[in-house]
Design brief:
It contains no helices and 4 strands. The chain is mainly beta and 68 residues long. The protein is globular.
Amino acid sequence: MNGQNRSNIQIGALVDIVLKKDQPTGKLTRGHVKRILTNSPTHPHGIKVMLTESDMVGRVQNIVEQQG
């Protein structure tokens, strides 16, 4: 599932994000969503989230697993 729709992303979901510094290479970082930072319902580059493990912030590229 893609990360461009805010309604697809839940707190606790396992996601792959691209960090700002990794945008040129497209390197993905995997983690669980702590906070959803984008307020709009969609974003063409992915919804911005913060991960629980490291407080890293990036845009969701893939939703690996929903919470629950």
